[in-house]
Each structure stands twice: as structure tokens, then as C-alpha cells.
Amino acid sequence: MKRCDAQQEHFGPLLGYCDHQMMKLMVRKLRGYDVSPMQCRTLTFLYEQQGDVTQKNLQEFLRVKPPTVNGIVERLEEKHLLTRSVSPGDGRCKLLHLTEEGRCFYQEFIAITEEVHRQAEQGFTREEVKLLQSLLMRVAENLSRETEETHT
């Protein structure tokens, strides 16, 4: 097993390594389902919104370009996990809805996600997990503040 050098002065590479390892494990566990992690994020977003979601809403959530969202939606439609319809209020707007199959898959996917998180949190107390989450949120806020300032 390869390990990331934990003795590095900066923790950025370690965060990247942890993210990579979690994604590798998710991809391996999802292999039999023929869905990508990005498609799973899409299904999760639709499930959690519990209502009309536009492709534009999804694009903003995923932070990707319109052609990328279109490709994700098309593949999920082909798998019968979501449907796309024209908004009655604005014919230019596409509304996305989970199908029954999509809702069922979401339940299976959440179980897999929880399993991966349990594995990552193994050996941590609940307090340590909360502390880690709090620290990572501070890092994310520090970095997003800088990137948002440069884009406005």
C-alpha cells in the first residue's frame, strides 16, 4: 500500500491524497452500477431538492459547463434514472426529475457512501470527526474567499 508522506510541511497534498483514495474506493464500489461519481452527485442533488430542478441549477451546483451537464443528464436518462421535461413557465428551461428507478438507486448509493465514510472515519471518535470537519470547513472558507474575490 502506497502512503502519502505525512511529514510534509503543507497539508494540501495530504488532502488531495485522501480525496483520491475516497474516490478510488467509491468508483470500485460503484463499478457494478455503471454510474460515475459525478452522476451520483447529480442524483443526490435531485433527490435532496425534492422538486423542480433546472439544468442551470444543476450546472451551478456541480460547477461545470453546460455541455458537461447535458452529457451527464443524457447518460442518466439513457439509464432511466431521470427524466427531462420542458418548463411550462419557460420553454427554454429544462426541468429534471428522478424516476422511481433513480430514487431506488439513490437509496443504494447512499448506503455505499455511508460505508465509505465509515471506513474513512475508522478509529476516530465522533468528536474527532466533528473537529476534522470543522477544520476542513475553515480551510474551504479561507480558499473560497480568495477565489471568489478574484472572480468578482
Give a quick summary of the entry.
The protein is mostly helical and 152 residues long.
What can you tell me about this protein's structure?
The structure is a single chain. Helix 2 packs across helix 5. The protein has one domain: Arc Repressor Mutant, subunit A (Orthogonal Bundle). It has 6 helices and 3 strands; from the N terminus they run H-H-E-H-H-E-E-H-H. By secondary structure, it is mostly helical. Strands 1-3-2 form a 3-stranded antiparallel sheet.
Give the helix/strand class.
mainly alpha
Q: Give the strand line-up of the largest sheet.
A: 1-3-2
| Beta-strand residue percentage | 5-15%
Q: What is the domain tally?
A: 1
CATH topology: Arc Repressor Mutant, subunit A
Elements, N to C (H/E) = HHEHHEEHH
- What are the low-pLDDT stretches, counting only 5+ consecutive residues below 50? none
CATH architecture group name: Orthogonal Bundle
What is the tally of beta strands? 3
What's the helical proportion of residues?
Answer: 55-70%
Major sheet, described briefly?
Answer: 3 strands, antiparallel
Mean pLDDT: 89
Could you state the CATH homologous superfamily? Winged helix-like DNA-binding domain superfamily/Winged helix DNA-binding domain
| Rg calculated over all Cα atoms | 18 Å
Helices and strands, with pairings:
Layout: H1 12-30, H2 37-49, E1 53-54, H3 55-62, H4 66-78, E2 82-86, E3 94-98, H5 100-120, H6 126-151
Antiparallel strand pairs: 1-3, 2-3
